Amino acid sequence: MTTEQTVIALRQAISSIEDHRKDFHHVLETEMINDPRLTDEQLLVLKKNRFNHSEVEILSLVNQKTELPYKTLTTQVTFSQGMLSRYITKLLKADLLTKVTLPDNKKSL
């Protein structure tokens, strides 16, 4: 494969990824609008922030439990603990997660 062919193939792959990302956000917005558990304020925050797949994965995992210890969450995601911490901070600032301090576990979400 020549350099030009490689560049063309890379551009096509990037374009395909961008299309997939747009589809993901469209489906996510459609699902959010139909979720009665979300307040109007939360819907606005979700639409405004355009969360990535990893952040949506965190919300989904936390949504499956009433409380999810941070340590448990780190074992259920595929990205680093540093990235998890960054995503958690963003979601806390957006009021989509609540940090709960338990007597025996200071890092539950």
Characteristic key phrases:
5 helices; extended; 109 residues; mainly alpha; two-stranded antiparallel sheet
How would you describe the overall organization of this protein?
Strand 1 (100-102) and strand 2 form a beta hairpin. This protein is extended. It starts with a helix and ends with a strand. The chain has 109 residues and is mainly alpha-helical. The longest helix is centred in the N-terminal third of the chain and has 31 residues, at 3-33. Helices cover 66% and strands 6% of the residues.
Poorly predicted regions are none
Measured by DSSP, the beta-strand proportion falls in: 5-15%
**Measured distance between first and last alpha carbons:** 50 Å
Give the averaged pLDDT, no decimals: 83
Question: How many β-strands, per DSSP?
Answer: 2
- Contiguous helical run count: 5
Sheet with most strands: strand arrangement: 1-2
